[in-house]
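Agenda item 2: iron/sulfur cluster complex prediction
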Amino acid sequence: MSTTQTSVVSSLRASVWRRWFVVPLRTLLSNSMIHAVRWTPIRIVNVFQATLAMALSRLFRRPIIWGVPPMLMIEPTNICNLKCPMCPSGNGSMTRPRGRLDRTAYQRLIDAVGHRLLQIQLWNQGEPFIHPRLVDFIRYAKARGIMVITSTNGHFIRTDEAARELIQSGLDQLIFSLDGTNPETYTRYRVGGNFQRVMDALTRIARIRREMRSPTPIIELQFLVFRHNQHEIDALIQFAEAIGVDRISFKSAQVYTQPQAQAYLPDDPRFNRYETGTTDVRIKGRLPNWCKRLWLNPVVNWDGTLSPCCFDKDADWAMGNVFREEQTFSEVWRGQAFQRFRWHILHRRAGIPMCRNCTEGLPQPYAYIVNLPR
Ligand code: SF4
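Presented output:
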């Protein structure tokens, strides 16, 4: 091999190493994560193992699994008080049973893998605050040094006492879904929602956090940009800054059909993840045979079924049940069903319908973050 060829090969290797290992690891270890996690040798080894296994799987196109995922999404409940038209929980199209996470099963899971986890996200389908034990779940994970994030539609933080209890739990980040700056635009999508109640909860949390001089939870507004609210972006930034929100994430919406696309998607192409002028719903860009969630961030549904990600709304791709005595979390995580699914993604992701309608791994962003001064 000539010197030029050798240097091309080694710079290619360096670029693959950077893109497939260094960048994902750096993204994973965000600033807030560094401060929110109690770092131990076991956690450090696990995050390196999981990320390296992911990079090697991508390189050799065969699934390699080491350690456990450093992040877990855990669903407190799939019951919701709202009727959002494109959400399977709200529009009634969800076919899996409704229920709430069992406290003992949750504690057993955290006891088994929590010492290796960096972060848990306490939500999936449904409204987490409907679960009466949500704050206990947060406390239990925080006591074990895990970063905890949850997400809410903002209808259940109704008193100062509830807000104080939540802040004292040690919650690291709280995401509020708010897709409007007035009752009309808000309820166009958040059907059954009460705009004033959400505003009250949001201002209450921000005020009490200030009174308690607590740096956490970081308050994030999540605004799905639709045709009917796209003109409110500037107003939302001003309003959020005034009440003490830390950041806003403007996200493009997921749709399933052309009529939904026509009814809801905005004109601004930055907030539309789909091709325009097609008869079906088609994500922009070429889907990579790849998905980092299968190595770093799967979902435990309320009943213990392990799904590859939050797009698996009905647990159609459940890989096993991590609450069953006869199967450990690691057995399901490394089991045949999950490995087969990973193999499929590494070879032909487009063959799985839910993975065709998913932005994971695409170069263009589907969320724009605006950080606000505190
Ligand atoms: S739907 Fe997306 S995130 Fe889920 S497994 Fe498929 S590619 Fe990954």
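Discussion summary: The chain is about 40% helix and 10% strand.
Owner for follow-up: CH.
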